[in-house]
Amino acid sequence: MAVVGVVYAVKILCKIVVGMIAGSEMLLADGFHNFGDLADVVVIITAMTLARRRPNSRFPLGYMNIESLGSLVIGIMLGVLSLRMFLVAGAGTVALFHVAWAGKILSFVHHTESTLDPSRMPLLIAITLGSTAVSIVMSKFEIRAGKRLGSQLMVDDGKETKSDAWVEGLTFLGIMANFLTHSVAPELIVVAFLGYKLFVTSREVIVPALDTLLLRRIDDAHEEGIWEIARKSGVLNVASVRTMRVGRHMAVINMKLLVPPETTTKEQQEHKYELCRQLIRYLRGLDYLDATYEIRYGYPDEPPFTMDP
Q1: Quick one: angle between helices 2-22 and 25-50, nearest 10?
Q2: CA–CA separation, 228 and 35 (whole Å)
Q3: Domain extents for the chain?
Q4: Which of 7, 60, 123, 201 has the most crowded Cβ, counting Cβ within 10 A?
Q5: Is-contact 105 87, C-beta < 8 A?
Q6: With pLDDT > 70 as the criterion, what percentage of the chain qualifies?
Q7: At what angle do helices 121-149 and 2-22 cross, to 10 degrees?
Q8: Model-level pTM?
Protein backbone atom coordinates (compact mmCIF):
# COMPACT_ATOMS: atom_id res chain seq x y z
CA MET A 1 0.00 0.00 0.00
CA ALA A 2 2.95 2.33 0.55
CA VAL A 3 3.80 1.99 -3.16
CA VAL A 4 0.20 2.86 -4.07
CA GLY A 5 0.37 5.93 -1.82
CA VAL A 6 3.57 7.15 -3.50
CA VAL A 7 1.99 6.71 -6.95
CA TYR A 8 -1.06 8.73 -5.88
CA ALA A 9 1.16 11.49 -4.49
CA VAL A 10 3.08 11.69 -7.80
CA LYS A 11 -0.19 11.78 -9.77
CA ILE A 12 -1.55 14.60 -7.61
CA LEU A 13 1.66 16.63 -7.97
CA CYS A 14 1.79 16.17 -11.76
CA LYS A 15 -1.88 17.04 -12.29
CA ILE A 16 -1.80 20.18 -10.14
CA VAL A 17 1.49 21.49 -11.54
CA VAL A 18 0.55 20.76 -15.18
CA GLY A 19 -2.96 22.07 -14.60
CA MET A 20 -1.55 25.38 -13.39
CA ILE A 21 1.01 25.60 -16.19
CA ALA A 22 -1.44 24.66 -18.95
CA GLY A 23 -4.34 26.60 -17.46
CA SER A 24 -6.64 23.57 -17.18
CA GLU A 25 -9.17 23.79 -14.35
CA MET A 26 -10.31 20.25 -15.20
CA LEU A 27 -6.88 18.80 -14.53
CA LEU A 28 -6.64 20.77 -11.27
CA ALA A 29 -10.04 19.43 -10.21
CA ASP A 30 -9.01 15.86 -11.03
CA GLY A 31 -5.82 16.33 -9.03
CA PHE A 32 -7.81 17.54 -6.02
CA HIS A 33 -10.13 14.54 -6.44
CA ASN A 34 -7.12 12.24 -6.10
CA PHE A 35 -6.59 13.62 -2.58
CA GLY A 36 -9.52 11.42 -1.59
CA ASP A 37 -7.74 8.35 -3.00
CA LEU A 38 -4.56 9.24 -1.14
CA ALA A 39 -6.63 9.64 2.03
CA ASP A 40 -8.03 6.12 1.53
CA VAL A 41 -4.50 4.72 1.31
CA VAL A 42 -3.50 6.52 4.52
CA VAL A 43 -6.59 5.15 6.29
CA ILE A 44 -5.90 1.59 5.13
CA ILE A 45 -2.23 1.68 6.18
CA THR A 46 -3.20 3.21 9.54
CA ALA A 47 -5.91 0.62 10.15
CA MET A 48 -3.66 -2.30 9.27
CA THR A 49 -0.83 -0.92 11.45
CA LEU A 50 -2.88 -0.01 14.51
CA ALA A 51 -4.78 -3.27 14.36
CA ARG A 52 -1.54 -5.03 15.31
CA ARG A 53 -0.96 -2.87 18.40
CA ARG A 54 -2.25 -4.32 21.62
CA PRO A 55 -4.46 -2.29 24.00
CA ASN A 56 -2.80 -1.19 27.22
CA SER A 57 -3.85 0.15 30.61
CA ARG A 58 -4.14 3.70 29.31
CA PHE A 59 -5.95 2.76 26.09
CA PRO A 60 -7.90 -0.41 26.96
CA LEU A 61 -9.69 -0.44 23.59
CA GLY A 62 -6.63 0.31 21.50
CA TYR A 63 -5.75 3.19 19.18
CA MET A 64 -8.30 2.75 16.41
CA ASN A 65 -10.00 6.14 16.89
CA ILE A 66 -6.80 7.90 15.76
CA GLU A 67 -7.70 6.68 12.27
CA SER A 68 -11.18 8.24 12.52
CA LEU A 69 -9.83 11.58 13.73
CA GLY A 70 -7.49 11.73 10.74
CA SER A 71 -10.34 10.72 8.41
CA LEU A 72 -12.49 13.56 9.74
CA VAL A 73 -9.79 16.13 9.03
CA ILE A 74 -9.22 14.75 5.52
CA GLY A 75 -12.96 14.63 4.83
CA ILE A 76 -13.41 18.28 5.79
CA MET A 77 -10.51 19.25 3.53
CA LEU A 78 -12.08 17.34 0.62
CA GLY A 79 -15.40 19.09 1.31
CA VAL A 80 -13.73 22.50 1.05
CA LEU A 81 -12.12 21.51 -2.27
CA SER A 82 -15.52 20.31 -3.49
CA LEU A 83 -17.07 23.69 -2.60
CA ARG A 84 -14.33 25.43 -4.59
CA MET A 85 -15.12 23.34 -7.68
CA PHE A 86 -18.84 24.12 -7.42
CA LEU A 87 -18.04 27.84 -7.14
CA VAL A 88 -15.76 27.65 -10.19
CA ALA A 89 -18.38 25.80 -12.24
CA GLY A 90 -21.24 28.10 -11.17
CA ALA A 91 -19.42 31.41 -11.36
CA GLY A 92 -17.64 30.36 -14.56
CA THR A 93 -20.99 29.66 -16.23
CA VAL A 94 -22.37 33.04 -15.12
CA ALA A 95 -19.16 34.74 -16.30
CA LEU A 96 -19.88 33.56 -19.84
CA PHE A 97 -22.69 36.14 -19.83
CA HIS A 98 -20.26 38.89 -18.71
CA VAL A 99 -21.68 39.30 -15.20
CA ALA A 100 -19.28 41.38 -13.07
CA TRP A 101 -19.71 39.65 -9.69
CA ALA A 102 -18.88 36.24 -11.21
CA GLY A 103 -15.35 37.46 -11.95
CA LYS A 104 -14.89 38.45 -8.31
CA ILE A 105 -15.86 34.95 -7.14
CA LEU A 106 -13.45 33.32 -9.60
CA SER A 107 -10.70 35.62 -8.37
CA PHE A 108 -11.54 34.79 -4.74
CA VAL A 109 -11.17 31.02 -5.31
CA HIS A 110 -7.96 31.54 -7.35
CA HIS A 111 -9.46 30.15 -10.53
CA THR A 112 -6.97 29.43 -13.30
CA GLU A 113 -8.52 30.53 -16.60
CA SER A 114 -8.11 28.04 -19.40
CA THR A 115 -5.71 29.31 -22.03
CA LEU A 116 -6.85 26.94 -24.82
CA ASP A 117 -3.26 27.09 -26.05
CA PRO A 118 -2.69 24.32 -28.67
CA SER A 119 0.96 24.09 -27.66
CA ARG A 120 -0.12 22.72 -24.25
CA MET A 121 -2.22 19.98 -25.80
CA PRO A 122 0.48 17.23 -25.97
CA LEU A 123 1.34 17.75 -22.29
CA LEU A 124 -2.31 17.57 -21.21
CA ILE A 125 -2.94 14.45 -23.29
CA ALA A 126 0.16 12.75 -21.89
CA ILE A 127 -0.84 13.47 -18.27
CA THR A 128 -4.50 12.46 -18.59
CA LEU A 129 -3.97 9.28 -20.64
CA GLY A 130 -0.91 8.31 -18.58
CA SER A 131 -2.84 8.79 -15.35
CA THR A 132 -5.73 6.69 -16.70
CA ALA A 133 -3.37 3.83 -17.59
CA VAL A 134 -1.71 4.00 -14.15
CA SER A 135 -5.12 3.84 -12.42
CA ILE A 136 -6.08 0.70 -14.37
CA VAL A 137 -2.79 -1.04 -13.47
CA MET A 138 -3.01 0.03 -9.80
CA SER A 139 -6.60 -1.19 -9.57
CA LYS A 140 -5.66 -4.69 -10.71
CA PHE A 141 -2.64 -4.71 -8.37
CA GLU A 142 -4.70 -3.69 -5.30
CA ILE A 143 -7.51 -6.17 -5.98
CA ARG A 144 -5.11 -9.08 -6.46
CA ALA A 145 -2.96 -8.12 -3.46
CA GLY A 146 -6.06 -7.64 -1.28
CA LYS A 147 -7.39 -11.10 -2.15
CA ARG A 148 -3.99 -12.66 -1.54
CA LEU A 149 -3.56 -10.93 1.85
CA GLY A 150 -7.19 -11.40 2.85
CA SER A 151 -7.73 -7.63 3.12
CA GLN A 152 -11.18 -6.51 1.97
CA LEU A 153 -10.05 -2.91 2.54
CA MET A 154 -7.46 -3.22 -0.22
CA VAL A 155 -9.97 -4.90 -2.55
CA ASP A 156 -12.50 -2.10 -2.02
CA ASP A 157 -9.84 0.56 -2.61
CA GLY A 158 -8.86 -1.22 -5.82
CA LYS A 159 -12.46 -0.98 -7.04
CA GLU A 160 -12.46 2.74 -6.17
CA THR A 161 -9.24 3.19 -8.14
CA LYS A 162 -10.89 1.53 -11.13
CA SER A 163 -13.69 4.13 -11.00
CA ASP A 164 -11.01 6.85 -10.95
CA ALA A 165 -9.86 5.65 -14.37
CA TRP A 166 -13.29 6.52 -15.73
CA VAL A 167 -13.10 10.00 -14.16
CA GLU A 168 -9.66 10.56 -15.68
CA GLY A 169 -10.95 9.40 -19.06
CA LEU A 170 -13.77 11.94 -18.75
CA THR A 171 -11.20 14.64 -17.96
CA PHE A 172 -9.34 13.74 -21.16
CA LEU A 173 -12.56 14.01 -23.19
CA GLY A 174 -13.30 17.38 -21.57
CA ILE A 175 -9.87 18.72 -22.50
CA MET A 176 -10.33 17.53 -26.09
CA ALA A 177 -13.77 19.16 -26.22
CA ASN A 178 -12.27 22.44 -24.99
CA PHE A 179 -9.81 22.63 -27.85
CA LEU A 180 -12.21 21.38 -30.51
CA THR A 181 -14.98 23.82 -29.56
CA HIS A 182 -12.63 26.67 -28.54
CA SER A 183 -14.88 27.20 -25.51
CA VAL A 184 -14.54 26.76 -21.74
CA ALA A 185 -18.12 25.41 -21.48
CA PRO A 186 -17.09 21.68 -21.63
CA GLU A 187 -14.52 22.35 -18.90
CA LEU A 188 -17.14 23.84 -16.57
CA ILE A 189 -19.36 20.77 -17.00
CA VAL A 190 -16.50 18.41 -16.14
CA VAL A 191 -15.43 20.56 -13.15
CA ALA A 192 -19.00 20.46 -11.79
CA PHE A 193 -19.07 16.66 -12.16
CA LEU A 194 -15.70 16.30 -10.42
CA GLY A 195 -16.94 18.61 -7.66
CA TYR A 196 -19.88 16.28 -7.15
CA LYS A 197 -17.60 13.23 -7.06
CA LEU A 198 -15.37 14.93 -4.50
CA PHE A 199 -18.41 15.85 -2.38
CA VAL A 200 -19.53 12.21 -2.40
CA THR A 201 -16.01 11.08 -1.43
CA SER A 202 -15.93 13.66 1.36
CA ARG A 203 -19.24 12.43 2.75
CA GLU A 204 -18.10 8.80 2.57
CA VAL A 205 -15.05 9.73 4.67
CA ILE A 206 -16.73 12.06 7.19
CA VAL A 207 -19.84 10.02 8.08
CA PRO A 208 -18.01 6.84 9.25
CA ALA A 209 -15.45 8.97 11.09
CA LEU A 210 -18.19 10.82 13.03
CA ASP A 211 -19.98 7.53 13.73
CA THR A 212 -16.82 6.22 15.35
CA LEU A 213 -15.82 9.35 17.26
CA LEU A 214 -19.37 9.67 18.65
CA LEU A 215 -19.30 5.95 19.60
CA ARG A 216 -22.31 5.07 17.48
CA ARG A 217 -23.51 1.47 17.47
CA ILE A 218 -22.77 -0.74 14.48
CA ASP A 219 -25.18 -1.11 11.55
CA ASP A 220 -28.67 -2.42 12.32
CA ALA A 221 -28.29 -5.44 10.05
CA HIS A 222 -24.94 -6.34 11.64
CA GLU A 223 -26.35 -6.02 15.15
CA GLU A 224 -29.36 -8.15 14.21
CA GLY A 225 -26.93 -10.82 13.02
CA ILE A 226 -25.28 -10.81 16.46
CA TRP A 227 -28.70 -11.18 18.10
CA GLU A 228 -29.45 -14.16 15.86
CA ILE A 229 -26.15 -15.90 16.62
CA ALA A 230 -26.68 -15.39 20.37
CA ARG A 231 -30.27 -16.74 20.21
CA LYS A 232 -29.12 -19.90 18.43
CA SER A 233 -26.20 -20.53 20.80
CA GLY A 234 -28.25 -22.70 23.18
CA VAL A 235 -29.36 -20.11 25.77
CA LEU A 236 -32.89 -19.60 27.09
CA ASN A 237 -33.06 -16.02 25.86
CA VAL A 238 -31.00 -12.94 25.04
CA ALA A 239 -31.71 -10.19 27.59
CA SER A 240 -29.76 -7.43 25.81
CA VAL A 241 -27.17 -6.70 23.13
CA ARG A 242 -25.32 -3.39 22.93
CA THR A 243 -22.66 -2.51 20.40
CA MET A 244 -20.24 0.39 19.94
CA ARG A 245 -17.81 1.38 17.22
CA VAL A 246 -14.15 1.79 18.12
CA GLY A 247 -12.27 2.75 14.98
CA ARG A 248 -13.82 2.21 11.58
CA HIS A 249 -13.25 -1.55 11.70
CA MET A 250 -13.42 -2.48 15.38
CA ALA A 251 -16.38 -2.90 17.72
CA VAL A 252 -17.30 -3.54 21.35
CA ILE A 253 -20.03 -6.16 21.89
CA ASN A 254 -21.83 -6.20 25.25
CA MET A 255 -24.58 -8.77 25.86
CA LYS A 256 -26.47 -10.47 28.66
CA LEU A 257 -27.67 -14.03 28.15
CA LEU A 258 -30.23 -15.97 30.19
CA VAL A 259 -29.35 -19.57 31.08
CA PRO A 260 -30.87 -22.20 33.40
CA PRO A 261 -30.07 -21.64 37.11
CA GLU A 262 -28.26 -24.99 37.31
CA THR A 263 -25.69 -23.92 34.68
CA THR A 264 -22.19 -24.20 36.14
CA THR A 265 -19.41 -21.66 35.81
CA LYS A 266 -17.43 -24.09 33.64
CA GLU A 267 -20.39 -24.51 31.27
CA GLN A 268 -20.73 -20.74 31.02
CA GLN A 269 -17.03 -20.41 30.14
CA GLU A 270 -17.27 -23.11 27.48
CA HIS A 271 -20.39 -21.49 26.02
CA LYS A 272 -18.73 -18.06 25.98
CA TYR A 273 -15.66 -19.46 24.19
CA GLU A 274 -17.75 -21.08 21.43
CA LEU A 275 -20.01 -18.02 21.10
CA CYS A 276 -17.00 -15.72 20.69
CA ARG A 277 -15.61 -17.97 17.96
CA GLN A 278 -18.88 -17.70 16.03
CA LEU A 279 -18.99 -13.91 16.47
CA ILE A 280 -15.39 -13.55 15.32
CA ARG A 281 -16.14 -15.44 12.09
CA TYR A 282 -19.30 -13.37 11.54
CA LEU A 283 -17.66 -9.98 12.13
CA ARG A 284 -14.61 -10.78 10.01
CA GLY A 285 -16.99 -11.46 7.14
CA LEU A 286 -18.26 -7.90 7.62
CA ASP A 287 -14.73 -6.38 7.40
CA TYR A 288 -14.27 -5.82 11.15
CA LEU A 289 -10.62 -6.25 12.05
CA ASP A 290 -11.22 -6.94 15.73
CA ALA A 291 -13.81 -6.75 18.51
CA THR A 292 -14.00 -6.79 22.31
CA TYR A 293 -16.63 -9.10 23.81
CA GLU A 294 -18.29 -8.50 27.18
CA ILE A 295 -20.68 -11.41 27.81
CA ARG A 296 -22.63 -11.75 31.07
CA TYR A 297 -24.96 -14.51 32.20
CA GLY A 298 -28.16 -14.31 34.20
CA TYR A 299 -31.20 -16.41 35.09
CA PRO A 300 -34.90 -16.07 34.23
CA ASP A 301 -36.89 -14.11 36.84
CA GLU A 302 -33.63 -13.18 38.52
CA PRO A 303 -34.28 -10.63 41.30
CA PRO A 304 -32.55 -7.26 40.80
CA PHE A 305 -29.28 -6.78 42.63
CA THR A 306 -29.51 -4.54 45.68
CA MET A 307 -26.97 -3.58 48.30
CA ASP A 308 -28.20 -2.98 51.84
CA PRO A 309 -26.65 0.01 53.62
Answers
A1: 160
A2: 40
A3: 2-213, 220-298
A4: 201
A5: yes
A6: 80
A7: 160
A8: 0.63
Residue 295's identity, in one-letter code, is I
> 27 or 144, which is more confident?
144
Q: Edge-to-edge strand order for the sheet containing 290-298?
A: 237-245, 250-258, 290-298
On the CB side of 184, CA atoms within 13 Å amount to: 24
pLDDT digits (tens, 9 = 90+) for 53-82: 777 777 666 666 666 776 677 678 778 878
pLDDT at 47: 63
The answer to whether residues 226 and 241 touch, using CB atoms and an 8 Å cutoff, is: yes
Class of domain 220-298: alpha beta
Question: Exposure string (b/e) for 116-144, b if CB count within 10 Å is 16 or more?
Answer: beeebeeebeebbeebbebbbebbebbbe
Q: What is the DSSP letter of 246?
A: S
Decide if 151 contacts 48 (C-beta within 8 A).
yes
DSSP sequence for 265-277: HHHHHHHHHHHHH
Instruction: List alpha helices for the chain, DSSP H.
Output: 2-22, 25-50, 65-95, 100-108, 121-149, 152-181, 185-213, 220-231, 265-284
Exposed e or buried b per residue across 68-87, where buried means at least 16 C-beta atoms within 10 angstroms of its C-beta: bebbbebbebbbebbebbbb
- DSSP labels for 64-100? THHHHHHHHHHHHHHHHHHHHHHHHHHHHHHHTTT-H
**Side chain identity, residue 89:** A
Domain covering 2-213 assigned CATH 1.20.1510 in the classification: yes
- pLDDT at 153 exceeding the cut of 70: no
Greater model confidence, 44 or 210: 210
Residue 284's pLDDT band (cuts 50, 70, 90): confident
Is the per-residue pLDDT at 273 higher than 90?
yes
Give the other-Cβ count within 10 Å of 155's Cβ: 18
